[in-house]
Amino acid sequence: MAARVNYSVQNTLFLLNPLNYSINAKTTHFKTGINFSKNLMFPRKLRRPTFCTCAISNNDLQSSEAAETFVLTTPLYYVNAPPHMGSAYTTIAADAIARFQRLLGKKVIFVTGTDEHGEKIAASAAAAGSTPSEHCDVISQAYKTLWKDLEITHDKFIRTTDPKHEGIVKEFYSRVLAKGDIYRADYEGLYCVNCEEYKDEKELLDNNCCPTHLKPCIERKEDNYFFALSKYQKQLEENLTQNPKFVQPPFRLNEVQSWIKSGLKDFSISRASVDWGIPVPNDNKQTIYVWFDALLGYISALSAENEQPDLQTAVSSGWPASLHLIGKDILRFHAVYWPAMLMSAGVDLPKKVFGHGFLTKDGMKMGKSLGNTLEPNELVHNFGSDAVRYFFLREVEFGSDGDYSEERFINIVNAHLANTIGNLLNRTLGLLKKNCQSTLVVDSAVAAEGNALKDTIEKLVEKARIHYENLSLSSACEAVLEIGNAGNAYMDENAPWTRFKQGGAASEAAAKVSHVKFFFFQKHLQRNLVWPSFEKKEEVTQFFREEIFQS
Q1: Confidence at residue 462, expressed as pLDDT on a 0 to 100 scale
Q2: I want to staple 10 with a disulfide (CB 3.0 to 4.6 A). Which of 58, 190, 426, 545 is the partner?
Q3: Which positions ≥6 away from 136 have C-beta within 8 Å?
Q4: What does pTM read for this prediction?
């Protein structure tokens, strides 16, 4: 049975998005736009695009009712300042993982949000001449806007100023208090305002500077409530012994084990000097420590919008989390403090905590004082979300530190997205349009049977799947790129353009070659390159049509 090909040639990358086609048997039309900076490509003459239609079946996917739940979280980002590339990087990676898990047929709950309490927030608001509440509204919205621009497909966005979150925090606090794990005491020590944390002198640099923020810690003495962390040292050690994959990558596990073995100290979970926070139950003169508050956002986010805040109901809505994605600077809070808190409250631990590295620019640590910050909004505006997403997933080994340079960025995007994948789709559909009137005269799946390319592609797809499951995102991108290379090699070897010119049986063979290529592109490339993300847009960027895709 013949099928009309209506894929838009200029929309190559959109077809790689496995989420924006309908998972049903209905015909789906794809029309979208992609934005790239003009300095990426050389100008070419604009030609009219080709559009296409295809049908996709969900026979191989699990029904939503039977699907396994996969809860994935980013940190709740601190709103003392607008979002930066480090925050964007974590969220891009989380989004790629969420999309992959959806492809496996799982019910994904992708949680992100903002952490909005604490001393730094109040100070930032005062410096800007606004109230803490107004400041939080502005910065939280900036995160939502950036996530939209980056095509992030989160399911939940929690703000720690949400009333439902406050209710669950207070209930959790009361449960830990009832367990006998909270007590009151004086504390005196060196405090880093930026970390919102007391520091041990042995971990500080010269002049008592914080190793993360490079600013002197201040002497502070307070009457606070403390959490009995030391009580859970043995249980934390046993958890890591019995479940060594709890902290990943493995070298992060070694860091956590070292912290625990050095001896855990109880930590303060309230602040008497901070007004902007959730009041401690039965003591309005103190507010709950920002980390004790924010970590619970992973659970409160699971509550339904109009649901009465209740810890058990939230927990039963998807907890435990399958994966916490975080930066390595907040590993201690997630791999030591958080599990102990959950043990105290009788709540299951998350299944895995993954700590990724930092980003540098041109080999140097980024900082406003150095004038080399990398602003995500500017990157997306200049190059488009897809180029930004792909570069950081492909070029940064997930878990390790990674570096950005504009020259390498442009070279990678051109070589991989335009020259390999864009070229493959352009050649395939261009031939089908020119020689087959954009019509598949045979079933492309049948045409692929017995073809050596089929075995090659299926092996690469399995390779990509394994890498995605192991969170080896760079390797997964490389495996999928190999599919594009295999497709281009197949096209070169068979030279269908020559056979079409010969006519007769040679032309029919050429059509089969093109059908096979279309089949593998539609079935495998678009479903396994989960990093590009597009929402359907009304306008197609003029330059992208001019530069890459020609029919």
Answers
A1: 92
A2: 545
A3: 79, 114, 116, 121, 125, 159, 161
A4: 0.81
